[in-house]
Amino acid sequence: MVAPEAPLAPNGPRTDRRGRRRTGRALSRSTPLLPAVVLLAVFLIGPIVQAFYGALTNSSLTGSAAQESEFVGLQNFADLFADPVFPKSVLLTTAFLVFSAIIGQNVLGLGLALLLRTGSRPVRVGVSTVVVGAWIMPEIVASFAAYAFFAEEGTLNSILGAVGIAGPSWLYSFPMLSVILANVWRGTAFSMLVYSAAINDVPPEITESAEVDGATGWQRLIRITIPMIRRSISTNLMLTTLQTLSVFTLIYVMTGGGPGTNSSTLPVLAYQEAFSFSQLGFGTAIAVILLLVGALFSIIYLRALKPEVD
Amino acid sequence: MTTDALAPRATASARPLGRRLTAAGTRRRIRGGAITLLTWGVVVVFFFPVLWMVLTAFKPERQAATDPPTFLADWTLDSFGKVFARDMAPYLINSLTASVGSTIIVLLLAIPAAYALSIRPIVKVRDALFFFISTRFMPVAASIIPVYLILQTLGLLDNINALMILYVGVNLPIAIWMMRSFLSEVPVEIVEAAQIDGAKLRTELFRVVIPIVLPGIAAAGLICFIFAWNEYFLASILTSTAARTTPPFLASFVDGRGFFLAVLSAASTIAVLPVVIAGWVAQKQLVRGLAMGAIK
């Protein structure tokens, strides 16, 4: 739904007095924004400035550098790009993002929402209840549940064992597959709720008239439903992307980033460098890269959304 | 919208087309049955780990880790007893303080801000704030190190009020975003009428606008509460003893010797209960609020 816009100022020439009055009014109207803006500035600009500075120092949790950190310029970034773990981590992060967020959560979420639309009332109520229940689970609990499911002696292997298949040690042999599946499980509920609501906003008359005109179910989906909810799709893609970029607990609980660094995505790597290996400066440099990636996605997202906001 | 949150508008109207031919009708019914079956299959997959956790909580520790897993066990409340023996109450109280406190502050800040952004928007400010809000979605994991250092410098590590204020910062953008969507639905004529009658900003807000969007405020509040209640990452790094909240407390049940599954499940079940009940009671508002926040 488009916000009811107040009539906006014409862009033509205007007299000074009118301009000043307009500025005064704009100021008074934006006062309610002030507390929120100040708070966000403190919590956003503060850490970001600190992160950019910290990335340029050799600060650490222990040792002499803990007391007095020195300015080392771009040394951390030079080390980072020279470290073979870094490109690997970028690759793992990308795989995690593409398979669990973009493909897994969004495609599955949209599919489920479409399935749900054709369901009967008790089915819809039941599914909605279960999905909301699963979505509300605290991240830490969901992570343990996923760990218990994929662990060597876990539920999945027990079930496989019951039908005579000796399951592999999932978390050790296929760490990325395990965390991707777990993140799909955890995140699909959200996408499904968003897409269900979006599909409900498509006027039924349009799909019905297409059906009368002989469009098949597939054609109706591709030609009508998806174009009509494209704004929800782009928003949801971005939300799930940014959410997935910052997933830490799930991976840390399930694999700890291992074995070795085989499932160390950027957040896990930053955490390990900073808190396990005490290299705060180095960890912060990774965090800065992560911030830049997040900012990049935010900008793409805003660009994609813009024409339809106005 | 009727009682269930996901109900499509007027589904019945498309039916008569298919009824004309019985063969087509049968085929349609078979397909409908298959879809229903498939849907339930997916639901089972989604719900199984949750169900399993609750069942495990009522099993004796030894049977919780048996191979193959069993639905039959000597059901017991032992694990719940062990959880309370470790005194869970302070953690629950900390969680409650941080969640309720941050939710109240968030709503107090978000409603006026969203109001300025939706009812009488000023274009440039709105653009700026949109950028502000979008930056919120930057990975929390990226800002944790600076936040840790800042709190360390201020001597505010392991302080529940500091955690509460952090949660305000984390939840505020989402709340503003959601409230903006709800406020956008308030008919502009009503606000203008109040203005013509000489209502001041405060009267306009409290007497006219807020009563209309009360369900939206409830939804935004509930979502902020759930996020704060469930938050693990910040809490685990920024608190240790005095301000420890429930999610890191849950993690403390994991030990290297194994045999912690039943106790962990019991503690998790207790921790999940308040939000799940709240979520189910307010399911309709929750789904609507989520959808509004994310779609519009």
Task: Provide an overview of this structure.
The complex is a heterodimer of chains A (310) and B (296). Chain A has 310 residues and is mostly helical. Chain A has helices at residues 16-30, 34-54, 64-67, 75-82, 85-118, 121-136, 139-150, 155-162, 170-173, 175-200, 204-212, 217-228, 230-245, 249-254, 266-276, 280-309. Chain A is built from 16 helices and no strands. Chain A has a domain at 89-265: Orthogonal Bundle (MetI-like fold). In chain B, helix 8 runs antiparallel to helix 11 and helix 11 (214-230) runs antiparallel to helix 14. Chain B is flat, with a radius of gyration of 24 Å. By secondary structure, chain B is mainly alpha-helical. Chain B has 2 domains: 2-57; 81-291, MetI-like (MetI-like fold, Orthogonal Bundle), CATH 1.10.3720.10. The longest helix of chain B has 36 residues, at 22-57.
Number of helices of chain B: 15
End-to-end Cα distance of chain B, whole Å, is 18 Å
Main sheet attributes: strand count, strand direction, barrel closure of chain B = none
CATH class of the domain at 89-265 in chain A: Mainly Alpha
- What do we call the CATH topology of the domain at 89-265 in chain A? MetI-like fold
Rg on CA atoms of chain A, Å: 25 Å
CATH C-level name of the largest domain in chain B: Mainly Alpha
Query: Overall 3D geometry of chain A?
Result: globular
Unreliably modeled segments of chain B: 1-5, 7-19
Overall 3D form of chain B: flat
Number of domains of chain B: 2
Topology as H/E string of chain B?
HHHHHHHHHHHHHHH
Q: Which whole number gives the mean pLDDT of chain B?
A: 76
Largest sheet entry of chain A: none
Helical proportion of chain B, percent range: over 70%
In CATH, what is the homologous superfamily of the domain at 89-265 in chain A?
MetI-like
